[in-house]
Specification:
Blueprint: E1 3-9, E2 22-28, E3 36-45, H1 49-53, E4 74-81, E5 91-94, E6 101-105, E7 112-114, H2 131-144, E8 151-155, H3 160-171, E9 175-180, H4 183-191, E10 197-200, H5 207-217, E11 222-227, H6 232-238, E12 241-249, H7 267-271, E13 275-278, H8 288-300, E14 308-312, H9 317-324, E15 332-336
Parallel strand pairs: 8-9, 8-11, 9-10, 11-12, 12-13, 14-15
Antiparallel strand pairs: 1-2, 3-4, 3-6, 3-15, 4-5, 5-7
Helix pairs in contact: 2-3, 2-8, 5-6
This protein binds NADPH dihydro-nicotinamide-adenine-dinucleotide phosphate.
Length: 337
């Protein structure tokens, strides 16, 4: 059996995550038991939720145990199988974690899924046609529930979730305005992702200034907002929401290191009779087939061409992950294992 390179959580961060919170180790891959499959990982997904799991604090996800392989989504190829449903060469998506190989009990429901790479590149099953894409779909369809002509806004617009949201919202005839960090990301949102406008929040020193830019980009106000960051961005959006607007609370990356993300004018939720709903995509498995089918078609037909930031080699995962939390990624952050 091959030697497995693995990254374990060595110690918990105090404030910002750092590379020395992680440790690279190696171990022998165990021999397969009946029902098990050995998967060689091609790509590892890095996702903001992993930062929350590094803390030993109450959250919707279990804390990552110290000394154990970091959890995470992976795509790869079956190299050996003792399960009749899988054969060597099958391309699969699973939760293999930060390591080069995983041994999977493939009889466990949802543990491993075969994917077709004829029209969708394997790596996109970790992004647009995977968990982040379904996240965008759920917030848009089930919470914002837009009608054609609505104006929708999303923060972290060029990331894995944001780029999928743009394509899904345009397909429903909405005006879609992104908020992203830096001119390059904003240009990409407008030119490549089909956003009607994109605002560079880094040009604005406070929520009043950002609110003015939103007023220009959203002359009819905002009907739906997909929240990924919190802080000043949320404050600014709240001032431009229309009555009976809907806010899908998906992420609060501005507060993932434990810093407070205060809301300056919560009374706007009342005044505008807003619906504000948080959600966790893994708690809505019932929508995944429908969402993945739509996302697969958008990617397969070229209507969604997601961008990826790919770190080279497992050892590069910690730095790439820390970069993701600071906006250094441009599109879906992956590691080529
Ligand atoms: P992205 O690919 O969008 O990467 C994160 C982006 O967040 C960065 O590129 C950066 O973009 C932005 N960012 C980072 N720090 C800050 C900050 N302090 N203030 C403002 N923006 C910041 O990640 P994903 O698409 O994977 O995830 C997007 C959001 O969705 C995250 O909040 C994540 O936690 C959440 N999520 C929630 C799920 C759920 O079930 N609720 C499931 C999946 C994701 P920029 O340079 O543009 O600022």
């Amino acid at each position: 059996m091959p030697t497995n390179q693995q990254i374990v959580l060595d110690n918990r961060p105090q404030g910002e995550a750092a590379a020395d919170n992680f440790k690279l180790v190696s171990s022998e891959t165990p021999a397969l038991a009946d029902g098990q499959v050995l998967v060689k990982h091609h790509f590892l997904s890095l996702d903001p939720y992993m930062r929350g799991r590094m803390n030993d604090a109450k959250s919707y996800a279990q804390p990552q145990a110290l000394g154990e392989v970091m959890g995470g989504g992976t795509v790869g190829e079956v190299v050996e199988s003792k399960n009749p449903k899988f054969a060597a060469g099958d391309k699969v998506v699973g939760m293999g974690g930060w390591q080069t190989y995983s041994v999977v009990d493939a009889n466990q429901p949802g543990a491993l899924r075969k994917v077709d790479t004829t029209h969708v590149p394997l790596s996109h099953y970790l992004g647009a046609v995977g968990m982040p894409g379904v996240t965008a779909w759920y917030g848009l369809v089930k919470i914002i529930n837009p009608k054609a002509g609505d104006t929708l806004v999303i923060s972290a617009a060029t990331g894995a979730v944001g780029s999928a949201f743009g394509a899904l919202a345009k397909a429903r005839g909405c005006r879609v305005v992104g908020i992203a960090g830096g001119p390059e990301k904003c240009q990409y949102a407008e030119k490549e992702l089909g956003f009607d406008a994109c605002i560079d929040y880094k040009l604005h020193k406070d929520s009043a200034s950002l609110g003015k830019a939103l007023k220009e980009a959203c002359p009819k106000g905002i009907d739906g907002y997909f929240e990924n960051v919190g802080g000043m961005v949320l404050d600014a959006v709240l001032t431009r929401m229309n009555a009976f607007g809907r806010i899908a609370m998906c992420g609060m990356i501005a507060g993932y290191n434990g810093e407070p993300v205060p809301l300056t004018y919560p009374q706007l939720i009342l005044v505008n009779r807003l619906k504000v709903e948080g959600f966790i995509v893994s708690e809505h498995m019932e929508v995944w087939p429908e969402a993945l089918a739509e996302l697969g078609t958008l990617v397969g037909t070229g209507k969604l061409r997601p961008r990826e930031s790919v770190a080279d080699g497992l050892a590069a995962a910690p730095e790439a992950f820390i970069g993701l939390l600071k906006g250094k990624n441009f599109g879906k952050q992956l590691v080529k294992v």
